[in-house]
Amino acid sequence: MNIAIIGGTGTVGTPLLTWLSRSGAHVTALARTPDSARRVRAAGGTPLLGDLDDGEAIGRLIADADSVLLLTANTPGQLDQEIRVIDVNASTRRAPVVKVSVPAASADSPLAIARTHHAAEEHLRGCGVDHMIVRPGWFMQNLHLVAERAGRTGVLALPIGDGPIAAVDARDIAHVCGVLLTEPSRFAGRDLHVVGAQDVTGTSMAAALSRAAGHDLSFRDISRQEFQRSLVEDGHGEDLVDDLGFLYDVVIRNGFLAGPNDSVHEITGRSALTFPSFAQEHTEWFA
Ligand SMILES: NC(=O)c1ccc[n+]([C@@H]2O[C@H](COP(=O)([O-])OP(=O)(O)OC[C@H]3O[C@@H](n4cnc5c(N)ncnc54)[C@H](OP(=O)(O)O)[C@@H]3O)[C@@H](O)[C@H]2O)c1
Fold first, then answer.
1. How far apart are CA 194 and CA 127, in angstroms?
2. What's the CATH code of the domain at 64?
3. What angle separates helix 78-91 from helix 55-62, to the nearest 10 degrees?
4. Is the CB of 30 within 6 Å of ligand 1?
5. Which residue range or ranges hold the NmrA-like domain (predicted)?
6. 142 pocket-lining for ligand 1 (C-beta < 6 Å)
7. Helix 78-91 to helix 112-126 angle, to the nearest 10 degrees?
8. CA pair distance 86, 117, nearest whole angstrom
9. Residues 146 and 282 in one domain
10. Which helix (H) or strand (E) holds 100?
11. Is 100's C-beta closer than 6 angstroms to any atom of ligand 1?
12. What digits encode the pLDDT tens for the residues 176-232?
């Protein structure tokens, strides 16, 4: 089976390439730099050098694909890039598409990311190609944004109060995408909300990270402004700070990302990874 991957060197894409290669699929992943190509090879895939802004490269990527992963980064060009992939596929190969979206994507969402994903989904639905939508919850790996600061200060500072989150390990999202890409006819047309099997809070995450690392990390609720300032100071996502501020201070604080489910187990046959196991495996992030 030939699988084409867009986003294969990212948080979800890297473990996905490893999983697919082990499953025996032949995986080709778009790689925009020689370093990305090296990472694709290291994860067991075949790189195709090219950029999402280049329709010809996308055409070559999906020329013999039996299914396509559409996962793009949250950048200002995201919608154009997704539409380009959808259109090239619809006018050539018409392979089933697994699109990674967000929960509650809608045209009138206050979150730009959710409006962008909604518009891409509408375009995908309109092209008449088989597709599946994966709506992951909040990735545990998002803590990378604040991990260095937390390790340095001993404080996990987020504007989320005691808002519960059905956090999901991105490796479970990779596993889910792997199953959908290798069994597209089983899941065609499905819209899957994929979250973890337990809610966590800032306090419970700090406690699990403290236990894993063997040193004290406490949780502190901060204002949206302080959070956004710290992100900019630490060199993260200038173009995303508005969305991230709203996401943490409103969406998460008010429990809108709460509510675990059994989707990982239903789709993959394996239990969802837990936050304590994530904490054990990522102590170096918080050192
Ligand atoms: N984080 C969350 O909690 C969460 C929850 C729900 C949904 N999502 C969605 O998940 C997606 C992000 O997934 P992720 O965290 O795995 O992504 P990521 O780590 O940011 O990786 C982005 C991938 O896209 C590639 N890429 C970026 N620009 C490119 C271009 N111009 N041409 C070719 N490749 C390009 C990157 O390649 P390089 O390695 O070369 O940079 C990388 O492989 C977003 O759409 C987001 O909305 C995230």
1. 24
2. 3.40.50.720
3. 50
4. yes
5. 2-241
6. yes
7. 10
8. 13
9. yes
10. strand 97-100
11. yes
12. 999 999 999 999 999 999 999 999 999 999 999 999 999 899 999 999 999 999 999
**CA 148 and chain centroid, separation:** 20
Output DSSP code: residue 9. T
Taking the centre of ligand 1 as the mean of its atom positions, its distance from the CA of residue 10, in whole angstroms, is 6
| Residue bearing the CA closest to ligand 1, atom 36 | 7
13 lines ligand 1 (CB under 6 A): yes
d(CA 139, CA 143): 8
Instruction: Count Cα neighbours of 186 within 13 Å in the Cβ-side half-sphere.
Output: 11
Closest C-alpha residue for ligand 1 atom 17: 10
Instruction: Determine whether the shortest distance from the Cβ of 248 to ligand 1 is under 6 A.
Output: no
Last residue of a domain, one of 88, 115, 136: 136
Measure the N-to-C terminal CA separation of the chain; round to a whole number of Å.
42
Same domain, 24 and 125: yes
DSSP tag of 248: I
Q: Give strand ranges (E) for 23-79.
A: 26-31, 46-49, 67-70
The whole domain housing 89 covers 2-136
Q: What is the structure's pLDDT at 237?
A: 72
Q: Are residues 27 and 61 in the same domain?
A: yes
Kindly state whether residue 95 falls inside one of the protein's structural domains: yes
Q: Which amino acid is present at 61?
A: L
Instruction: Tell me the CA–centroid distance for residue 73 and ligand 1, in Å.
Output: 3
- Average pLDDT of the residues in 22-42: 98
- The total of other beta-carbon atoms located within 10 Å of residue 188's CB is 12
106 shares a domain with 152: no
